[in-house]
Design a protein that fits this description.
alpha+beta, globular
Length: about 70
Amino acid sequence: MRMVVEVFKTNVNEIEISERLIRQVLDHFPRSRVNFDMEDCDRILRVEADAVSPEKIIEILAANGYFCEALI
C-alpha cells in the first residue's frame, strides 16, 4: 500500500509539547511516522501513514490549544 504524507503548519514551539502531541497523534494513527520540524518558521508537522485524516490531526492539536492548518 502507498504511504500518504500530510504536512501541517502549526504554532507549536516547544519540544516537550511536540513530543506529547506526537504521542497523541500516534494513539489515533498507530502505524504512522510523525514528526515536527521546529527549525522551520511554520513549525511543520509531518504525518506519514497508510491513511491520514487531516481533520483528526487538526482536531487533536486544537484540543490541546494549538493552531494547525493542512498545507497543500
